[in-house]
Amino acid sequence: MSSELVPLDMPTDLPSIEREIGEHEALMRTDRRAYNADTSRQIRLRNLYEARAGSSARDLQPEAGADDMAIVPLAEFRAQAPDGNYELYVNQMRQAGDVVYAVPGPERLAFIRGLEALPDGTFACMIGELMNRGAVAAGYATDAQVRAAMSGYPGASIVREWGAAANQNLAHVRARLWRCIDSMASDQDADRFLAWLAGLTEAQAKAVYRKLAA
Fold first, then answer.
1. Cβ-based neighbour number of residue 137 at 10 Å
2. Are 136 and 172 contacting, i.e. CB atoms less than 8 angstroms apart?
3. pLDDT above 60: residue 95
4. pTM tops 0.85
5. Which one, of 112, 156, 165, lies nearest residue 138 by Cα?
6. Nearest partner of 127 among 184, 200, 70, 67, judged by Cα
7. Rounded to whole angstroms, how far apart are CA atoms 107 and 114?
8. Residue 173 in contact with residue 181, Cβ under 8 Å?
9. More reliable by pLDDT, 83 or 59
């Protein structure tokens, strides 16, 4: 997003950006009808996501994978894929960037390389789920399921971060993960995805779960 399009009241430091994003995403989870009816709030959230990506990118060192996540200009995209859908490509990169830039800088390159090592079909299903805004019948996770989620799995500390919303958020994340797995072409792809998820670091897994809970 060019600097002249950034709203004047947009926060510039990452903690403030994250805090306001959290407020908007909380409304999305608790009162989706009100969120869907508020166009200005939706635009604000999109601008915040872009501001977060820009703020994170400024801290990203070249060796930490900046080139991997850079959105190529339209002319370059057309040269490489004359019949490709540029709007879809940009959306895919932004959705993936929301996760990647939420990973601590020193871990980003390893995270990107892990994604690149996945089969193309598995990665496509993951990106498809990030772009899928369709509702899932999630309900609420039980207290026992919340406790189990804190037992030895990477990203378990996200439950404490969620606090009172943990039961709802965990159920939402589980439902989206299963929808993602169900879209995969084979059991081997699903197994590869689950192995990748289990091998993430704590911070990497939390970045994934935050995005899925939004």
1. 6
2. yes
3. yes
4. no
5. 165
6. 184
7. 11
8. no
9. 83
- 142, amino acid identity: T
At 6 the pLDDT is 42
Residue 130's nearest CA partner among 41, 32, 49 is: 49
146 class by beta-carbon count within 10 Å (0-12 exposed, 13-18 middle, 19+ buried): middle
The winner for highest mean pLDDT among 72-76, 85-89, 201-205 is 201-205
Alpha helices (H) in the chain, listed in sequence order: 14-30, 32-37, 39-58, 66-69, 74-80, 86-100, 105-116, 120-131, 143-149, 158-162, 166-182, 187-198, 202-213
Q: Which residues, including other chains, have CB under 8 Å from residue 25's CB and lie 6 or more apart?
A: 45, 213, 214
Q: Are 18 and 52 in contact (CB under 8 A)?
A: yes
Dump pLDDT digits (tens) for 111-128.
988 888 888 888 888 888
142-152, pLDDT tens digit by residue? 888 887 777 77
CA 200, CA 126: separation in Å to the nearest integer?
A: 15
Give the pLDDT mean for 11-30.
78
Return d(Cα 143, Cα 164) in angstroms, integer.
11
